[in-house]
Predict the 3D structure of the following.
Amino acid sequence: MPSPFILDRSSVTQVMAWVLAALLPGIAAYVWLFGPGILVTLALATVTALAGEAAMLKARGYPAKPFLLDLSAIVTAWLLALSLPALAPWWLIVTGTLFAIIVAKHLYGGLGQNIFNPAMVGYAVLIVSFPLQMTQWPGPLSLTDAPLTLAQSASVIFGGDLPKAVLDAVTMATPLDALRTGLLQQYTVDEIMTRPIFGHYGGVGFEWLAGAFLFGGLVLWALRIISWHVPLAFLAGIWLAAGFLHFFDAGRFGAPWFHLFAPSVMLGAFFIATDPVSGATTPRGKLIFGFGAGLLTIIIRTWGGYPDGVAFAILLMNLAVPLIDQYTQPRVYGTDTRRSKAPPA
Amino acid sequence: MSRTLHTFKGGVHPPEHKSESNSRPIHAAPVPRELVIPMRQHMGSPAKPVVGVGERVLKGQLIGEADGYISSAVHASSSGIVRAIGLAAVPHVSGLPDECITIETDGLDEWIDHAPLDYRAMEPSDLRMRLRDMGLAGLGGAVFPSAVKLDPGARHHCPTLIINGGECEPWITCDDVLMRHHAGDILQGVAVMRHLLGSTEILIGIEDNKPEAIAAMQAAATMMDFAVEVVTLPTIYPAGGAKQMIEMLTGKQVPSGKLSTDIGIQVFNVGTAHALARAVHHGEPLISRLVTVTGHVLRPQNFDVLIGTPMQVLIDLAGDRDGSTGVLMGGPMMGMPMPHTIPHGLQPVADRSPLVGDLGVPVVKATNCILVQSKELFPPLPKALPCIRCIRCADACPAELQPQELFRFAKAGDFGRAQEYHLFDCIECGCCSYVCPSHIPLVDFYRYAKSEIWTREKEKRAADLARERHEFRQFRLEREKKEKAEKLAAKAQAKRAELAATPADERAAPTDADAKKALIAAALARAQAKKAEAAPKNIEHLAPDTQREINEIEARRAKIREMARQPLEPEEKT
């Protein structure tokens, strides 16, 4: 056995466990603000992810135990679950999770090999394929009269026969949806913002959820699980792009703070864009990656076909990672210039 | 101290484990019954044995002379009889045996005549040659011949002299205790270095986990007639790496692919300075050094050890314990595992029975530490998982490399890209492997990639050389053919002239036979040239081990060729 003969007490499992732990404040806020339905989604996604992971490991001839214990499948499952509407039907959750694990992760070579963030691939597949089912967002409890219990949520998710009137009473458009449709109906941003769904910065409830994700992300940064580069650049990209447009025409473009305090942005900035496997690795590359993802998010939100653009923005930047890394190699000890060689022919 | 310290990027903080061994006094290890002294203990060419089997040698007597400029001499560490000269187990990562001189000691420890050198009166080049012949080599680990490093080169002076007392590797404390107890000697050695290098600034860098050593060095520095600055460095691995220490003390980086002397800085380990003082002021060649024996032993401590002492002797002295799982030479970050048993086919040292786990390898000049492992101190490393590109390795890399990319290229066999990403600036400190959450033995991949690249370059050079030789041979054959034809023509002409001059009846008919002989000779020459071409291509810059092996094979081959040629010779001569 060659040197070194000692190791720091770190492991992939430990890294992933911290990521999961840092998601807990967000999940708690979710339950508090939107009801317990998300727990059903999380549990279903977790079980599906582990089953898919185990099956793929077996099919590929890898030992199941070390790879199941690395917790990466659960991280993917949770990130996807938190991106889905909490009352999405069970088959949607299963389809998305399996696609993420089987196609986006294992068909690309498994842990460490995936070019795209698996959770975001799962999300993109679902929103492209099942746009209608992807709108079953429960509204914030403060705005709904009869919140669903855990059992009721489970029954909705597993195709139970909840009266449509009850379901309609609990689901409602997300703030981003509301902004988008409102703008399409020729309302101005100020008019739209007077609707009850909008709170101080983002949507009622949604802004607090975003805050909880932000808190979890800051914990990850404090623990040095993630570096500051990607989240900061991502948030800066959102803020500057949205701010530029808002400054340009405040009637047609949402305020930068509104764009920033969406849960998807905080989740994306601290938990998804920071995925080391599919993200840039160099310091400058991380800044470019994060900023580009933020910029694309606003572009897609403003001119794209979907209300939110975080997933697509991150996937697009994932595509650019090899190029970004190639051209942002940092200076090496004892060399004068940053190395930026053209790729070999 | 008012000096502003700089930082180097990266580094790690492994558990230090210094207190186990640094509080006990230095213990002089006894003269062992047998000393096994390898000829190759330094960088460069191995020493050449200059004594014979059965000869009595004295302590400090030259037994292997330096072979070339980058080489160093080897001496008998104690008096006794040379019992064997040949292959024996040595502390090398390959586990392969190497040429050693085995001395059966007589217990008298009788010194050869030796006297201090008046270094100020000597020609610098003479002094350096003397030091080379006294076996001086860097004791920090790289064992580079000190005489070479003490040559300031064309610039004639090296303004900054750094004495490295960093000792950043966990467990090792030999430099620490050396500074505590022999600070004065170290500075005497520094004075000689300063004299040879013409340095004006002398800095001694010591990590702040060695306050006693810092105090001792500071006290000794005030006694010197030149300015010495003892600088306290933060404890971070690898602060004791030469390049890292230079950066911390001066803020300068050694340019990639160059030497520190190119920016006017030379670095020596404190142990080297001490050995230099012993050599100059006492005339003693390098025959002993301090060795930390620590880890899974009863009394971890530092020993003053004669070079060639079997490591097991020291482990026994420090108190061997049950449950040892291996022995490292050096620290846990960059040390190398020692072979457990005596390699197959070699006779065990003396009459010791080759017990399982008995360490037959000797202490050499590079041996700073003997670290006995146990399951508790060194749990088996977990299995590696795939890289998740978390770049903790890049954050820890003191060479500011991108280890995750180097790993990717090395694994894929894309050595060209690996080189583009500065593979050869890797100092193999092990920080990347240490922090890797996937537990990938990264350094191993870099060593593999480096050796592959070396092999390929060697092959390429050999191919180039072969092509050049082939082309030259074609040219030569062409020329020889022409010359031969001309000679023959001239000869025939002469003959004809002679014939014309001599009477007809004296004419014989040997011309035909002569021409035939010439033809045969030409054919023979061609055959031989062909044979020479079929012989293995010469390979430049091989690892010394391989080179030696090749040399032996070549010698054998030459003999066979010689034998094969003999029956032909009478024919050729006619």
The longest helix of chain A spans residues 37-60. The CA atoms of residues 116 and 198 of chain A lie 33 Å apart. Chain A touches chain B at residues 1-8, 10-12, 14-15, 66-67, 70, 72, 110-113, 276-277, 279, 281-282, 325, 329-336, 339, 341, 344 (CB under 8 Å). Residues 199-329 of chain A form one domain.
